[in-house]
Amino acid sequence: MPIVHNLSPDELLTTTRAVRKRLDFDRPVPDDVIRECLAVAQQAPTASNRQNWHFMVVTDAEKRMALAELYRKGWQQYTQSPTAATNLEYDDPVRAAVQERVGDSAQYLADNMHRAPVLVIPCIAGRTDNAPALVQSAQWGTIMPAAWSLMLAARARGIGSVFTCIHLMHEESAAEALGIPYRRVMQAGLIPMAYTIGDRFRPAHRESLDDITHWNAW
To answer: What is the pTM assigned to this prediction?
Structure first.
């Protein structure tokens, strides 16, 4: 499988960013490149001895538009909530500036979701509605490593992506539009993918490791 960027494992893991404004909507992504990324994702660890997850790849323009409309509908609902991340206020000016940039890029993605050449929906067989934490953990803990592996494989090939979940406010409508058996298969997110504008990405600012790490007791 051809790798575009010769990144070390640590570089790959620390520079695979949530890409929104730097997605090149005008450059097509070949199907065989997406298949390469999916083949890598298929090797992700699972919570059992069987792979009970699937990927819905959407490249059809009308279906991408339908998904984008559901995403925008959910985004509008989300931004009207006082607890939405876009409406939070911070006393720290640095954090406030970062949050403003993130909100601006998230709005840009919502406005342009239909332009992404590829939309990928990670799915898993079996729903977790009202399920106990153990069942939820097993399901989500199986599909998420596969989704992350897909995004890492994409990054290594010069393709940007971002994991979103806003469309899940209207998951059943999305399932109907794509023929997904809603009662048997749960959608886990929506990943727009496109080649990136530029290929230089840096590790992001994070909180102090000491503030989030607990040894032996909280």
So the answer is: 0.91
Average pLDDT over residues 45-64: 90
* CA dihedral for 149, 153, 154, 155, sign (positive or negative): positive
- Asked if 66 contacts 113 with a C-beta cutoff of 8 angstroms, the reply is no
Whether the predicted pLDDT of 4 surpasses 80: no
First to last CA, the chain: 44
